[in-house]
């Protein structure tokens, strides 16, 4: 049987690394993409040689073209693309400089657009799947996320655009929106106050794990989801479900 190949961006750590490991456990090969060379190289040594590291920046159109060429020449095919690379910065609207806005958009939004577009020819061949990583912050507005939240809301909509257009090639596109997971990205922006407010507002009352997110990503890339496209799935401990009143209505 032909071994399937997934391209995972932001694979050097966090959710991307957990996704790499899960796909490999499930018998896939993985092209691990990251712009952090040393971290990527160290991470790739912790997984089997079914994973191949590729150091590229997904926000740079020229690098994305080179990346797709390199991955295809090394691994021969692409069955799934997981657009996971992301950056975060939490700042008030008034203090968000244009440079910060662009820094967030160029990875979180431009990167998803560029990588998806460049991999369409390969995904057509396999009737493959795209999974974009959004965020709970793209589903609901909250303070300090004018750039991050807007980038993720745009990724959610881009997923629907991709599903609408690429369905005729048999390519599916879905979006996973994680709630809080204790990765390097989250810990850089989640203050103790934010953590305690989150825990209070989430029905499951805890952070998720990288693996809990990667299970949803893997399902959406697998044949088990062969009739699922254009969907936005929150893996968030129920965060998106609740509005006002959860802490006040708890029994204790
Ligand atoms: N951790 C959370 O609580 C949380 C919640 C919601 C959504 N997310 C989303 O999940 C995804 C993964 O986040 P994480 O928490 O694992 O983050 P992380 O910071 O642990 O890992 C992100 C990886 O992406 C890489 N990266 C960043 N920009 C890149 C670029 N332009 N090109 C190539 N690689 C790049 C980084 O080097 C890093 O290795 C992100 O899209 C993030 O927005 C995370």
TrEMBL record:
<dbReference type="InterPro" id="IPR020904">
    <property type="entry name" value="Sc_DH/Rdtase_CS"/>
</dbReference>
<dbReference type="InterPro" id="IPR002347">
    <property type="entry name" value="SDR_fam"/>
</dbReference>
<dbReference type="InterPro" id="IPR036291">
    <property type="entry name" value="NAD(P)-bd_dom_sf"/>
</dbReference>
<feature type="domain" description="Ketoreductase">
    <location>
        <begin position="4"/>
        <end position="184"/>
    </location>
</feature>
<dbReference type="InterPro" id="IPR057326">
    <property type="entry name" value="KR_dom"/>
</dbReference>
<dbReference type="Pfam" id="PF13561">
    <property type="entry name" value="adh_short_C2"/>
</dbReference>
<protein>
    <submittedName>
        <fullName>SDR family oxidoreductase</fullName>
    </submittedName>
</protein>
<comment type="similarity">
    <text>Belongs to the short-chain dehydrogenases/reductases (SDR) family.</text>
</comment>
């Amino acid at each position: 049987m032909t071994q399937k190949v997934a391209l995972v961006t932001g694979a050097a750590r966090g959710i991307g690394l957990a996704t790499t490991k899960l796909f490999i456990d499930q018998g896939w090969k993985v092209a691990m993409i990251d712009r952090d060379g040393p971290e990527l190289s160290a991470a790739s040594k912790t997984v089997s040689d079914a994973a191949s590291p590729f150091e590229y920046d997904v926000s740079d159109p020229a690098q994305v073209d080179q990346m797709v060429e390199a991955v295809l020449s090394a691994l021969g095919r692409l069955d799934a693309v997981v657009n996971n690379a992301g950056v975060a910065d939490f700042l008030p609207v008034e203090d968000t400089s244009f440079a910060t806005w662009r820094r967030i958009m160029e990875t979180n939004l431009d990167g998803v657009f560029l990588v998806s577009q460049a991999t369409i020819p390969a995904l057509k061949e396999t009737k493959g799947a795209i999974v974009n990583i959004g965020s709970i912050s793209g589903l609901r507005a909250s303070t300090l996320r004018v750039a991050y939240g807007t980038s993720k809301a745009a990724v959610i909509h881009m997923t629907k655009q991709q599903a609408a257009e690429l369905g005729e090639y048999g390519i599916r596109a879905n979006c996973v929106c994680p709630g809080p997971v204790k990765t390097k990205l989250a810990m850089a922006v989640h203050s103790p106050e934010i953590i305690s407010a989150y825990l209070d507002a989430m029905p499951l009352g805890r952070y998720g794990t990288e693996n809990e997110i990667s299970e949803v990503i893997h399902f959406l890339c697998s044949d088990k989801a062969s009739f699922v496209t254009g969907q936005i799935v929150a893996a968030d401990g129920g965060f998106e479900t609740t509005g006002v009143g959860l802490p006040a209505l708890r029994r204790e």
